[in-house]
Design brief:
The chain has an 8-stranded mixed β-sheet with strand order 4-3-2-5-1-6-7-8, with helices on both faces. A 6-stranded mixed β-sheet has the order 12-13-17-14-15-16, sandwiched between helices. The chain is about 40% helix and about 20% strand. With about 450 residues, it is an alpha/beta fold.
Length: about 450
C-alpha cells in the first residue's frame, strides 16, 4: 500500500499487464463514495468529460443489458458510441468500448501512464489515493474525450448514483432501470434510501427514464425529478410494454410511448429483458423526439434484435445444456426463476451457485430452491467469497418451506471441481444453470468457452 502512495513513479508502466496490475493495486482502497478525487482528477486533465454527450444508466439490476441495447441500436443507426460498463466478464478492456470494440491494450497503457503521476499526487494529499474505480472512470473519460471522440457515451454507474464516481458527468438523458436490495451496506437498507441514491443521477433539466415499480421508490424518483425540474418518463404511467409470443428464439413485445408505439423483438432471454428493452426504447425516443437523433425504425428494430450481453441467461454448452446467469441478489433470483421455463423442456434442473459474503442469501434462495433438483454450492475465486458451508446452512434452514422434497444439496468449495460435478450429473435432457456472483460466472464461462487469457474483476 505504501508503494502505491509514495511512488513507484521512477519509470513509466511498460506493458498492458503492468498497467492493469497498477490499476488493480488500488483495489485495497475500497469503495469510497464521493466525487472529490474524481473532480480533482478532471480538473488536472482539463475537464475532458465536458466535451461528451452521456446517457447515464443506474439501477439495481439490468444496467448492463440496458447499456447493451442502447449501444447496439445507436451503432446500428450510424452513431459512434463509447460504452463504459462494469464488472467485466472476460478482460479488463471490456470496460471501455468504442463501437463495440475494446480499447486497444497500447492505448490503455498510454492513458494509464498519463494518469499515474496525477493519481500519485492526489494520493499524497489529504484526499488520499483515488480508488481503482475512480481511476478506471477517469481512464474511460480520457479515452472517449481525448482519443476516439464518440457521438454519445453509454455510461453505467458503478454503485448507487448520487455519490458514484460516474456522477461527475451531466448527461443528455438519465435511466434508472429498477430498485432492489443490493449493496445495502453502502446504499442503505430500505428501498427509499436505495432509490434516493440512484435518483442522484437525475440532473437539473435533464430528462429521466425509469422502470421502477415500487410505490415508495417511485415517490422518491418523482420528488427528485420535481426538485430538479426534470421530466420523468415512468413505466406504467408514461410508457408501457406488453409481452408477445416467443418465436424462433426471439421475444416479441409491443412498446407504447408518449410519442408512438413500436413492435420489437429481442434475442435476450428472460421477461425482465423486455422491461430493460422498454426502458432503453423510451430513452431512445427522448433522444429522437427532443435531441434530433436520427433513429430509423429499421435500424432500431435491427439494433434490438442484435443485442447480446454475456453472462445473462447465456447458453454456453449444449451437451450438457448449461446456462450462465449473473443473478446475485433477490430480484435477480426472482427474474431467473421466472425465466427458466422459457428454455426448452427439461428433466432435472441442476444449479451451481457461488456468492459474495455481503449479499442477501436467504432471500435469494427463497426464489431459487422451489425450482431446483440438485443444488451445488461452491466458492468464487475472490477475496470476499461466501463460505459454501455457510450457504449450505442457510439452504438447509429453508428446505422444509421452499425446496422440492427430493432436493439434493452438494458442497464443493473448489469451483472447478464443482463445475465438473455439474457436468457429470446433468443428463442430455436436463438443464444446468450456473448463477451467483459474476466473479464465478466469469471463471466458469472462460473455462467452458476455452478462453485461457480471460481476466475478471469489478
Amino acid at each position: 500500500m505504501e508503494e502505491i502512495i509514495r511512488g513507484g513513479s521512477a519509470a513509466p508502466l511498460s506493458s498492458y499487464t503492468e498497467a492493469v496490475d497498477w490499476i488493480n493495486s488500488l483495489i485495497p482502497f475500497g469503495i469510497r463514495p464521493g466525487l472529490e478525487r474524481i473532480q480533482l482528477l478532471m480538473e488536472k486533465l482539463g475537464h475532458p468529460h465536458r466535451k461528451l454527450k452521456f446517457i447515464h444508466v443506474a439501477g439495481t439490476n439490468g444496467k448492463g443489458s440496458t447499456c447493451a441495447f442502447l449501444t447496439s441500436v445507436l451503432i446500428q443507426s450510424g452513431y459512434s458510441v463509447g460504452t463504459f460498463t462494469s464488472p467485466y466478464i472476460t478482460k479488463f478492456t471490456n470496460r471501455f468500448q468504442y463501437n463495440g470494440t475494446d480499447i486497444p491494450e497500447e492505448t490503455l497503457l498510454a492513458l494509464a501512464n498519463q494518469l499515474r503521476p496525477l493519481v500519485q499526487e492526489i494520493a499524497g494529499s489529504e484526499l488520499g489515493s483515488p480508488t481503482m474505480f475512480e481511476v478506471a472512470t477517469a481512464l474511460a473519460i480520457l479515452y472517449f474525450g481525448e482519443v476516439c471522440y464518440p457521438d454519445v457515451v453509454v455510461w453505467e454507474t458503478g454503485l448507487g448514483g448520487r455519490l458514484d464516481v460516474t456522477n461527475i458527468v451531466t448527461p443528455i438523458v438519465s435511466i434508472i432501470t429498477n430498485v432492489g436490495h443490493d449493496h445495502t451496506d453502502v446504499l442503505g437498507d430500505t428501498l427509499e434510501l436505495i432509490a434516493g441514491e440512484k435518483a442522484g443521477i437525475i440532473k437539473p433539466g435533464v430528462p429521466a427514464v425509469s422502470c421502477v415499480s415500487q410505490p415508495e421508490a417511485v415517490a422518491v424518483l418523482k420528488a427528485r425529478a420535481a426538485a430538479t425540474r426534470s421530466t420523468l418518463y415512468l413505466a406504467g404511467e408514461d410508457f408501457s410494454y406488453s409481452k408477445g409470443e416467443l418465436k424462433d428464439g426471439f421475444q416479441h413485445f409491443t412498446f407504447k410511448g408518449p410519442f408512438r408505439g413500436l413492435e420489437l423483438d429481442i434475442a435476450m432471454k428472460g421477461e425482465h429483458q423486455l422491461e430493460n428493452a422498454a426502458g432503453a426504447m423510451m430513452a431512445l425516443e427522448v433522444l429522437r423526439q427532443y435531441m434530433a437523433f436520427m433513429l430509423e425504425d429499421e435500424d432500431v428494430l435491427e439494433g434490438f434484435r442484435g443485442t447480446f450481453w454475456a453472462g445473462r441467461l447465456e447458453e454456453v454448452s449444449t451437451s450438457p445444456r448449461i446456462i450462465l446467469d449473473g443473478a446475485h441478489n433477490p430480484e435477480g433470483a426472482e427474474s431467473l426463476a421466472k425465466s427458466i421455463p422459457q428454455f426448452q423442456p427439461y428433466g432435472q434442473l441442476n444449479l451451481l451457485m457461488g456468492m459474495l459474503a455481503n449479499k442477501h442469501h436467504e432471500s435469494y434462495l427463497k426464489h431459487i430452491l422451489p425450482i431446483v433438483d440438485t443444488l451445488i454450492l461452491t466458492e468464487p475465486d475472490f477475496r470476499k467469497k461466501m463460505d459454501a458451508e455457510d450457504l449450505q446452512a442457510i439452504a438447509e434452514s429453508l428446505r422444509n418451506k421452499y425446496a422440492k422434497d427430493n432436493l439434493e444439496i452438494i458442497v464443493e468449495r473448489n469451483w472447478g471441481q464443482a463445475l465438473q460435478k455439474l457436468q457429470t450429473i446433468t443428463a442430455d435432457d436436463d438443464l444446468a444453470v450456473v448463477s451467483g456472483t459474476l466473479y464465478l460466472i466469469s471463471d466458469v464461462r472462460s473455462t467452458l468457452l476455452r478462453q485461457p487469457d480471460s481476466e475478471k474483476g469489478w
